[in-house]
Amino acid sequence: MLRCHASGMLLPVLLFFGAVAQAQQVGPIPPPPAPPAGSPAGRPSDPPGKPQPTTIQESAASGISATPPAKPVEEIVKAFAAHESEFRNERDNYTYTQTFVIQTIDADGQPDGEMRMTSDILFTPDGKRYEHVTHAPANTLSRITLSQQDMDDLEHVQPFVLTTEELPKYDVKYVGKQDLDDVGTYVFDVGPKKLEKNQRYFQGRIWVEDKDFGIVKSDGKAVPDIKKHGNENVFPRFETFRENIEGNYWFPTYTRSSDTLHFTGQEVRIHMTVRYANYKRFGSTIKIGAPVGNKPN
């Protein structure tokens, strides 16, 4: 995900955020809340690192039943990919607010740099989507730099959607069944069949609701890491939770990551959160997270 400054090379900061500012005091990201009401809690986060294939023993320990599903796995995969295609088209009709926070953590467990940005995803009068930044304090990250791949992953990989169109690019392996709170799910391990140049992919695990076939949770990382010409661009593991807020569609509402990025010569620990709130489709509003006060009459 993130470029390291260890090489001593001058690495450009994404122009959108400008140059790195002088250090200022930052506080730690609050502990991750319980997943939003209506979203499955899921299992605890796995240790940071590259997602690995899950064995039967691991599945049993995590509460995943290896019992074969009632219908063929191929039919389930086809059904959830078709549902995800519908969901992607539906989400494209929504505006929402996105709050992104990333911190680097020092040896004492304290944040020593932070970047924070809140933006509204909106439509122009002629129907084109755009991002309007509403809050972006000075960027105090000094040990890492965000890249264009980071911003692309924030938009496309972390709120992972596996559609019928994208399905041929992935190997999908059935792991078993698991109840997340009161939600029955099918569990799959997912990874790219091959890595195409300049393309980004998800590698990890997804939980698919067993009635309407929407993805309700994903746990993995964006691949590939990029290391060439003396630059290192590596990416953290993350979890994304979705919430059922409209019919049978599950919308991403929260992404979190606590990982250590392994660069040549040093390691950088990071905390990251992304919150999606205030989903709005045309004249209908569905608010997620803290309520917004109304003006008194």
Task: Describe the structure in your own words.
- The protein has one domain (2-27, 70-286).
- Helix content is 11%, strand content 43%.
- It is built from three helices and 15 strands.
- It has helices spanning 56-61, 73-91, 148-156; strands spanning 2-4, 94-105, 111-123, 129-135, 144-146, 170-180, 183-192, 201-209, 215-223, 226-228, 231-234, 237-246, 249-263, 266-281, 284-286.
- Strands 2, 3, 4, 6, 7, 8, 9, 12, 13, 14 and 15 form an eleven-stranded antiparallel β-sheet that branches. It has a four-stranded antiparallel β-sheet with strand order 5-1-11-10.
- Strand 7 and strand 8 (201-209) form a beta hairpin.
- The chain is globular.
- The termini are far apart.
- The model is unreliable at 5-33, 42-61 and 291-297 (pLDDT under 50).
Task: Label this structure with key terms.
disordered C terminus; 43% strand; 11-stranded antiparallel beta sheet
